[in-house]
Design goal:
The protein is mainly α. It has six helices and no strands.
Length: 94
């Protein structure tokens, strides 16, 4: 997904969200760390953020909130607290 277009990431986002909410896979890690990289890269100039409309941005923000609330142990174990906080701030902008 690193080289997918913003439209491609948006298209696959429901599946990517399911992967992010799933537990880590032995030997492969936790997909949410990669998704956070995609969603936070380049901050306000993020290509996926710019592609999404307000409703889509709200859906991404809801996913990020869900990760923070229900996967806090994984967030801490993978050391992505700052990345998650930055993504939540970006995607929750109105």
């Amino acid at each position: 997904m690193c080289f997918a277009s913003a439209k491609g990431i948006a298209y696959y986002f429901p599946a990517l969200a399911r992967l992010a909410l799933a537990p880590p896979v032995e030997g492969r890690g936790w997909y949410a760390t990669q998704l956070l990289s995609q969603l936070g890269y380049d901050s306000g100039d993020n290509r996926v953020y710019r592609f999404c409309d307000p409703a889509q941005r709200a859906a991404v923000a809801a996913l990020l909130d869900r990760l923070a609330e229900s996967r806090s142990s994984e967030v801490g174990a993978h050391g992505v607290e700052d990345e998650l906080a930055a993504c939540r701030e970006l995607w929750s902008r109105r």
